[in-house]
Design goal:
heterodimer; A: mainly beta; B: mainly beta; 6-stranded mixed sheet; 5-stranded antiparallel sheet; globular
Chain lengths: ~110, ~110
């Protein structure tokens, strides 16, 4: 049981390049999330998926797209990376009964955009 | 719009001291409140979850309380140890929004031997 797995762990991009961060969970969780963490800003929600087939914007969705490929996988895409997207990205999931369950996080993906 | 604030931003205490971390939120319509620990360069680990109908939760030396009416939660750490040094974050799960969580900025705790 691996929990929440994110790839890659580290990535360096040039401005304008595109990339996809992958996230997979093996806990049969319904809801999945993408956060970014910046110094002094805490964690900010980019997008979330309450269930398979649905996605919704969070606090800071601009410049990102997501795909809930199936129940296990939730990917985050940067179409044209900008230096402001340099951050640590975390994927997380919960079983899907929000009132009763704990968020499980991946280990994070550190992205640098030059 | 829900806003979550944690005070203080940083705290340094000697080993053995009891301490309290504070978390406040602006909208009382929440499903639950969670406290997390984050070690440098690592992901977040859940410590405690308090349902909106509960007043407190305990785990070992940790006790978290919730007062929805005043929009406040506290995390009490008893007999602090150097291994407790980390950043502590609180987050509220928003009612009827698919499990969306809003985080505070965190309190960076340092426990000196």
């Amino acid at each position: 049981n691996a929990g929440v797995t994110q790839t890659p762990k580290f990535q360096v991009l040039k401005t304008g390049q595109s990339m996809t961060l992958q996230c997979a969970q093996d806990m049969n969780h319904n809801s999945m999330y993408w956060y970014r963490q910046d110094p002094g800003m805490g964690l900010r929600l980019i997008y979330y998926s309450a269930s398979e087939g649905t996605t919704d914007k969070g606090e800071v969705p601009n410049g990102y797209n997501v795909s809930r490929l199936n129940k296990r996988e939730f990917s985050l895409r940067l179409e044209s990376a900008a230096p402001s997207q340099t951050s640590v990205y975390f994927c997380a999931s919960i079983p899907g009964r929000p009132g009763a369950n704990v968020l499980t996080f991946g280990a994070g993906s550190r992205l640098t955009v030059l | 719009k829900q806003e979550v604030t944690q005070i203080p931003a940083a705290l340094s205490v000697p080993e053995g001291e009891n301490l309290v971390l504070n978390c406040s939120f602006t909208d009382s319509a929440i499903y639950n409140l969670q406290w997390f620990r984050q070690d440098p360069g690592k992901g977040l680990t859940s410590l405690l979850l308090i349902q909106s109908s509960q007043r407190e939760q305990t785990s070992g030396r940790l006790n978290a309380s919730l007062d929805k009416s005043s929009g406040r939660s506290t995390l009490y750490i008893a007999a602090s140890q150097p291994g407790d040094s980390a950043t502590y974050l609180c987050a509220v799960m928003i009612y009827n929004q698919g499990g969306k969580l809003i985080f505070g900025q965190g309190t960076e705790l340092s426990v000196k031997p």
